[in-house]
Amino acid sequence: MTSLLEAHGLTKEFTTGSFFLRKKTVALENFGMAILAEKPTIIAVAGESGSGKTTLARLLLGMIRPTEGEILYQGKSLTQMSGSEWRIFRREVQAIFQDPFEVYNPFYKVDHVLTTPVAKFHLADSKTATRELIESAVRAVGLRPEETLGRYPHQLSGGQRQRVMIARALVLKPRIILADEPVSMVDASLRATILESLLKLKRERGISILYITHDLTTAYQLSDKITVLYQGRVVEVGDVDLVIKQPKHPYTQLLVNSIPLPNPKSRWGGGAITQTTEEQVSRPNQGCRFANRCPSRMPKCLESSPPLFRIDPNRGAACWLYSQLPATEPDKMLESTPVSGSTN
Amino acid sequence: MSDAILQVKDLRVYYHTGSGCVRAVEGVSFNLTKGKRLGLVGESGSGKSTTALALMRLLNPPGRIEGGQILLGAVDLTKLSDEEMRQVRFSQVSMIPQGAMNSLNPVMRIREQFVDTMEAHDQRLAKKEADAKVHDLLGQVGLRREVARMYPHELSGGMKQRVCVALSITLRPKLIIADEPTSALDVVVQRQVMETLGQVQAVLGAAVILVGHDMGLMAQFVDRLGVMYAGRMVEVGPVEDIFREPLHPYSQMLIESLPSLEGKHQFKGIPGVSPSLLNPPPGCAFHPRCRMAVARCSSEMPPLQEIQPGHWTSCHLVEVRT
Amino acid sequence: MNTESKTQTRRLRFPNLDLTLVVGISLLLTVLLFGLIGPSFFDPKTTNVGAFPPRLPPSNDHWLGTDSQGRDVMAALTYATPQTLKIGVLAGIIGLGIGVILGLVSGYFSGIVDTVIRTTTDVLNTIPGIALLVVIATMMRMMSVELMAMIIAALAWRYPARAVRAQTLTLRERAYVQVARLNGMGGLEIIVKEVLPNLLPYIAGSFVATVSQATLSSIGLEALGLGPQNTLTLGMMIYWAQYYSAILRNMWWWWAPPIVVIVLIFVGLFFVSSGLDQMVNTRLRRTE
User: Fold this and answer.
1) Nearest residue of C to residue A168, measured between CA atoms
2) Residue C102 structural domain
3) Global ipTM
4) CA of B22 vs chain C CAs: smallest distance (Å)
């Protein structure tokens, strides 16, 4: 099994402030992940704001460097790649961002975002070939070239703009697409269409997708595996069916219970969740980051941070409640080993 | 309908822009009973936020209320003068606007924001009484008394939003309008804020209008739901009825498109694009995207009809049931 | 917003054009025509020293009389105006050009490059321009119009560099710049193709400001006597007028006309800048 994209012990710290009053924020700590070449997978990275998911995206795209840990593409560390290896990485690992308006330079028509990669990566050798290439990419996402190309971004709807961005990613024939909240700023009626096209990318083109979101329901719908982040740390990871339907980490349980289900018959119960303790605004903790909100808090939780414990063959949670189980690493939980029921 | 606290009849709000007349709200009608919760749900461009602003007479030019009535009790809000409306605002009808937490004055302590609101409505209390009232309001939304002395930037998003909820009930209004109150909040905090709003409303006996686009949130919170599309109310009725048996094709497709935890890989979007409000399609605004459209739908605008008691919809293909 | 109704009343038939802008452009065009076409009506020799009897008040032969050195003032005015404009525009273009390049480079590539450029700019920004200009100008043996433009340009880039850097810092974080990187574009390419086009509105407005500032500096230097002694510019006319005590001698036809032209230039520049500002802002408001 050859690895495509891997991350080990990925940590990113940001220092802010001036000479004398430096403040260190740990945005991401000890993150791990593995996407294998033979098995296209969709992995969800779920977390609220402040969980570190944006930082993760920027690290995996090579836009910022980790403080600790490494990212390997096809076995080669990003920081040690040659120029040509980097070009390959740049082409094969693409992204779709959250805001379908901000991603377009208002100065240019939307074609610009499609023709640029063709030119920069030499994907076509003539103007007609370029035109054909971008037209077929646009059709592949369910849009019509004559209605979409040649227009300025503000002349298209949010859903159309987002789909053109997917077309842009497709033109490069990537192997991995990082989708950072691709539908959160799109109308509800269009979300399903866009998510479906992401699923088709995996099925029809063998592209693995990293779906970064705060919406557990769409994460469940779309992905095979899921990592739940809380304040930069992996709290639960593994098969999406196990994590969402039978969450083991108290934070995951809290998240799943808070989902507003579109079913008036099953309303939010009066759970223990409505403690009126306010979310602490970043209080550095020696121990588990979630301890001060956790209903199952033990003294140990305030002293040291739990490692990931292997609760099922395909699921782990970082909680001292499971300390009797063997410890493991997040990337091992995400290796795409087939499990009965969750093929393709 | 003696306990109908709000009756909106055929409300029209148009924006007269340089490029033409944008019909943001085109004949919206609904009623709200005292102490009940109504949801106005729709996507961008549906007119739900404009409706909320119109109810508070907070529209900015070139937007104007072109027609219709807004009856709060017996008083038609559209006919009040600016000064009379100012009296009504916050004391009878209050609002938690979109992005409310960013509308807290950053240089005033929380306590001052409350005092400000009270003084604007000629309620000047002695310092001790004012403090007591502020602490009481904060307590109702589950915040500690110490919050009164803090500045907005010292609070988290959820806390700020709860302050906004408390501000909205300061003068004990009969109606609270919440316009996407939780849109920037995490799922966990969202639940806390909504439950807080529910508790506060129950204590006060006030009615609530929740404006938003999250059907899940609506299902969890409201009693009655109004579905809006292209400035029109396409279906309104008890929330369980609408989810169980949506009558309007748009409501049906919208509910079908909602992701659920029941099964994987089920994606059913609504094809097409939302209509332009400058040049809306003739007849029923949804007909270009409707899977059941017939010839009549493109020429005649369907009226809002009561299909079952309390459950209205505007669709040519739905018959009144006896 | 209440400002909507205000801008409505100032619009003309073209929805984009603002009245202030139109007035400003008209003023500038008038001065420009005066300076470009005016000289063709007058023989350049009439602007030489000793061409006519000095200190003659306005008459049919000399519409604005003659100055203390025997020049026909009207003719001198038409020849001086284009020279002043030339200095201002030349210094403005060069200064802005340098400022934009430095601002873009230092804003986009942080690190050492940014630190060096920024520190230099900041240090130079703290020194009052006139003081520097005076020092440099006094060191020059010979002064010409082109040389003046160079000297002023050498300082005119300071403010734009800082302002463009600030804009570049924000634009650099825009999502479309991230997309450009994913598309394989390199740093310099991104600066030119993605960032620069979005700076154009700012640059357009800044151009007007830079030209104004440059013109003002040149007139200031000239009035102090540091200008090109052998060429007539508006500032030099004021210098000579003051040198020969034109005010005391009540020779209003000598000291007043250059001032009028200068005022027209500045009011025109101000209206253009204000009108452009309105246009850019209303367009921004409409896309919200």
Assistant:
1) C183
2) 31-287
3) 0.83
4) 14
